Amino acid sequence: MATRYLVLEDGTIYAGIAFGGSRDSMGELVFSTGMSGYQQSITDQSYNNEILMFTNPLIGNYGVNRDNLESQVPTCKGVVVREIARRTTNWRMTMSFSEYLEQHDIPGISDIDTRAVTRHIREQGAMRAALVNEVTDETMAELQKWARNPHAINESATHNAYSAPATGRRIAVIDFGLKYSILRELSKRNCDVVVLPPTATVQDVEDVYPDGVLLTNGPGDPTAVPEETLEMIRTVEQKYPLLGICMGHQLFALANGATTTKMKFGHRGFNHPVRNLETDRIDFTSQNHGYMVERASVDQTDLKILLEEINDHCVEGLRHQSLPAFSAQFHPDAAPGPHDADYLFDEFMQLIDQNPVQK
């Protein structure tokens, strides 16, 4: 078994056992508290540029199957676990977790005290990290120079429009790095879906004659998105009912004058309680975000806070006060995680029915 090293930007080094891909890699080290769903997590494009550490001590016991992918090509920079399962079994599996990472040349490291590393990140904040097969004098220097790719959305999202035809409401989905689970939730509601790239213009949206528009999740800093995209959102929300999810929530906020900021270590996992401030309903939610909408900035806009995280009062949803548009910072589509909040898709459908578009 080969040794691999996890090197943090503050100089902390952890030695473990290599699995998966063989290359060295750098990214922002983040942690997820999910008890399962490792396959959906690593194929979530929101982890582009990030080294994903799982706090659950055993990972990989049910292998990987083709049905639980959230994208075709994972873009996370590495995986950190306490223990990788030596035996994997599931009637749907097509390969082991380690084999899947090796297939996509994503390096993994096991036999790491992930509890200790998580505590370190919670105290110090998410930080740059490297997975290397050998620690050299250049490792730390290269790590200090590493910067998140500002064009991660362009790497993660589609470059060409495509459709998933059905006979129901037509939804224009603007792809910033979408999870397939969003499309599955729309499909359950018989939606006629047209997926557009993140560079979509107002004309591109109008050309598909949608009944509503959905802004998807995606990786990176929302302020790196071009002003043209925010202007598109400002125009589109005047014409069509709109739902923003995760990155889409943040872009919806920016387009309407609110601001965003980087969180200390983010929310990643499936046990985050969220309160609906309109109904006082509480749901457990699936979350994956390292940025958030600044609460005070909402007061200066036409938005109001719809949803908030109970533990730290982070803004988890917004509603426009005069337009049929709202957003959720978390994933009502889950995958993995609880489906408590999938009613938000039904609310989106009702909003469309109550605000028909003149075609």
How does this model look, in words?
- The chain has 359 residues and is α/β, with parallel strands linked by helices.
- The protein folds into two domains: 3-145, Carbamoyl-phosphate synthase small subunit, N-terminal domain (Glucose Oxidase, domain 1, 3-Layer(bba) Sandwich), CATH 3.50.30; 152-354, Class I glutamine amidotransferase (GATase) domain (Rossmann fold, 3-Layer(aba) Sandwich).
- 25% of the residues lie in helices and 31% in strands.
- The chain contains eleven helices and 19 strands.
- The chain has a ten-stranded mixed β-sheet, sandwiched between helices. A seven-stranded mixed β-barrel has the order 1-2-8-6-4-3-9. A two-stranded parallel sheet has the order 5-7.
- Strand 18 (315-320) and strand 19 form a beta hairpin.
- Helix 8 (227-239) crosses helix 9 (247-255).
- It is globular.
- The mean pLDDT is 97.
- Pathway: Pyrimidine metabolism; UMP biosynthesis via de novo pathway; (S)-dihydroorotate from bicarbonate: step 1/3; Amino-acid biosynthesis; L-arginine biosynthesis; carbamoyl phosphate from bicarbonate: step 1/1.
- Belongs to the CarA family.
- Keywords: Amino-acid biosynthesis, Arginine biosynthesis, ATP-binding, Glutamine amidotransferase, Ligase, Nucleotide-binding, Pyrimidine biosynthesis.
- Residues 2-132 form the Carbamoyl-phosphate synthase small subunit N-terminal domain.
- The active site is at 246 (nucleophile), 331, 333.
